[in-house]
Amino acid sequence: MNPTFSVLHATWGRPHKAIAAMRQWRDHCSRPQDVEYIFACNADDSTVPDLMDLLEHGKGFSTLVITDAFRGSAPAWDAAAKSSTGQWLIQAQDDLEPPKDWDGGLLLKIIDADFYPYGHLHQPAVIAVSDGYRKDTLQTIAIANRDRYEQVGEFIHSGYFSQFSDDDFSYRSIRDARAGKCTLIDARDLIFKHRHACHDPSVPFDATYARGSSPEAWAHGQALFLRRNPEAASDGLRTWT
Length: 241
Fold this sequence. Notes:
The structure is a single chain. By secondary structure, the protein is an alpha/beta fold. The protein has a single domain, classed as Alpha-Beta Complex (Spore Coat Polysaccharide Biosynthesis Protein SpsA, Chain A). About 35% of the residues lie in helices and about 20% in strands. It has helices at about 15-25, 50-55, 75-80, 100-110, 145-150, 165-180, 205-210, 215-230, and strands at about 5-10, 35-40, 60-70, 90, 95, 125-130, 145, 185-190, 195. Strands 3-2-1-4-7 form a five-stranded mixed β-sheet. It is globular and about 50 Å long.
């Protein structure tokens, strides 16, 4: 039987922080046997052996580590999705802290949205949760069911490096929900705390943040977003403020 959730974690250069994040997902989970956890790492990341040594087989999670020559976090997340088997796909990061009983909380939202039992109705759906900071509709933690993944053919568009991949995911899920092509489940009372350096000054701005937030990544992402979503320039649908 396939797991209910696939947690997809792109990481680079932070083995200890990545493993600490995975352990928090595990410790805050009510049914770890229903979760698979997939790390996606760059093949030339010299810290991957350290991550493998620290992994200890997940201690309750089914775990997998995939490696490739990813240009950034976006293609790594999408590659993790391609290796997943769960009914619901969840984007994870080194600096993301899930709430206690995160799996039970999400299942309640799914059931309340008439997706009982756990997504088997074959309706494309996205769940919007809170990152603990933002007040707009940008979904910085992408969550989608497998039917949505199959509908669009990807989880996170791999053409991005990092920047604007969340804009793309958010914009398209909101647009398609308005058009009746998918269901957008509002679960913003569930807080998956995103302790990013831009939100929390106590978090060091390290080489990993610099890699993902480079001017090149920003310029490339903005141009790609507008090419993929030209109507976004005039339809009035904004995902962030």
